[in-house]
């Protein structure tokens, strides 16, 4: 059952309490999101109930990380309760409130201007989070774990998810073999590591014209190589690869990327196949079938 957002919104003070709250989704994770609008219908705040298994301590740590981006106008501001808390626990879930991100995500092939703007936005985030650490890229290790899980446990193609699983079992093996070969040389190679967004899909970047005006969903922030973000975002757009142009714009905006460009391309090329394999292995609700079919379509193109 979807929880009632109003009692939680009231705990964030009069401004949140006096808004009208409308559900706007939450994705496959089990999260739920509401848009808070004023009497004129202008959206002002976003209220999110995080998945039931998402620890409140982790959310508070993410808020501390996001606070380092307060100088970036496209990053939503995290709001606190009158007592200064940015996380409220209610109904067994962690909740937070942030400013509403205006603009709309790119739903097709991005223009050169949007590619450049999005790459510059990533460069600014990464610069604010830059740290001195090194080791094998977690993005590589995550993909290799997915490949190991695929080898060990493929579900039978049954139920409402079955057609997509059946198609994946027919399509994926050759792509996963290529992914394994491409990833292995990077499995033990030390690269610079720092906090990254990790789950920055195209739907998480909002544009007004060519300009990035919103960057949402920081729930997957963890230490990785910056190529993980570049590959996830620019490998997620449809059409011809925009990654070479994105890397050039990223460096021009001050982004630090010292590895060969081919490393980002490896992560982009293997990310689609490994994401599809992960959905097959762990399964999901019927709605996930559309995501899996979309990933397989990308591989086919």
Summarize the structure.
The protein has 301 residues and is an alpha+beta fold. It has helices at residues 6-10, 14-17, 56-67, 112-128, 138-152, 162-183, 227-234, 243-252, 261-282, 288-300; strands spanning 20-25, 32-37, 43-49, 78-79, 88-90, 93-99, 104-105, 134-135, 191-192, 194-196, 205-208, 211-215, 222-224.
Outline the biggest β-sheet: 6 strands, antiparallel
* Structural class category: alpha+beta
Written as H for each helix and E for each strand, in order along the chain, the element string is: HHEEEHEEEEHEHHEEEEEHHHH
Using the 3D structure, state the CATH architecture of the largest domain.
Answer: Alpha-Beta Complex
The CATH superfamily of the largest domain is identified as Aminoglycoside phosphotransferase (APH), C-terminal lobe
Percentage of residues in strands: 15-25%
- The radius of gyration computed from the alpha-carbon positions, rounded to a whole number of angstroms, is 20 Å
Broad shape? globular
Uncertain segments are none
Overall tally of domains: 2
Tally of alpha and pi helices: 10
CATH fold annotation of the largest domain: Aminoglycoside 3'-phosphotransferase, Chain: A, domain 2
Mean pLDDT: 92
Number of strands: 13
- The CATH class label of the largest domain is Alpha Beta
Distance between the termini: 39 Å
Instruction: Please bin the fraction of helical residues.
Output: 40-55%
């Amino acid at each position: 059952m979807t929880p009632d957002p109003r009692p939680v919104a009231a705990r964030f003070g009069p401004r949140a309490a006096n808004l009208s709250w409308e559900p706007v989704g939450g994705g496959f994770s089990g999260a739920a999101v509401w848009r808070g609008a004023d009497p004129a219908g202008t959206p002002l705040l976003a209220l999110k109930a995080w998945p039931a298994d998402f620890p409140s301590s982790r959310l508070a740590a993410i808020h501390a990380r996001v606070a380092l981006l307060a100088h970036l106008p496209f990053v939503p501001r995290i709001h606190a309760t009158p007592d200064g808390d940015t996380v409220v626990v209610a109904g067994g879930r962690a909740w937070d409130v942030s400013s509403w991100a205006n603009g709309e995500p790119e739903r097709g092939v991005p223009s050169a201007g949007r590619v450049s703007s999005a790459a510059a936005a990533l460069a600014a985030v990464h610069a604010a989070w830059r740290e001195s650490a090194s080791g094998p890229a977690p993005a590589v290790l995550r993909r290799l774990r997915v490949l190991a899980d695929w080898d060990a446990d493929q579900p039978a193609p049954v139920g409402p998810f079955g057609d997509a699983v059946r198609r994946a079992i027919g399509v994926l093996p050759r792509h996963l073999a290529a992914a394994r070969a491409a990833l292995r040389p990077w499995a033990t190679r030390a690269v610079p590591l720092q906090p990254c967004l990790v789950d920055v899909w195209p739907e998480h970047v909002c544009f007004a014209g060519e300009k990035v005006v919103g960057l949402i969903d920081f729930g997957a922030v963890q230490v990785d190589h910056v190529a993980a973000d570049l590959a996830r975002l620019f490998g997620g757009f449809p059409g011809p690869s925009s990654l070479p142009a994105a890397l050039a714009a990223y460096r021009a905006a001050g982004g630090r990327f010292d590895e060969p460009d081919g490393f980002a391309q490896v992560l982009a090329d293997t990310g689609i196949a490994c994401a599809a394999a992960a959905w097959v292995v762990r399964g999901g609700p019927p709605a996930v079938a559309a995501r899996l079919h979309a990933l397989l379509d990308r591989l086919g193109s």
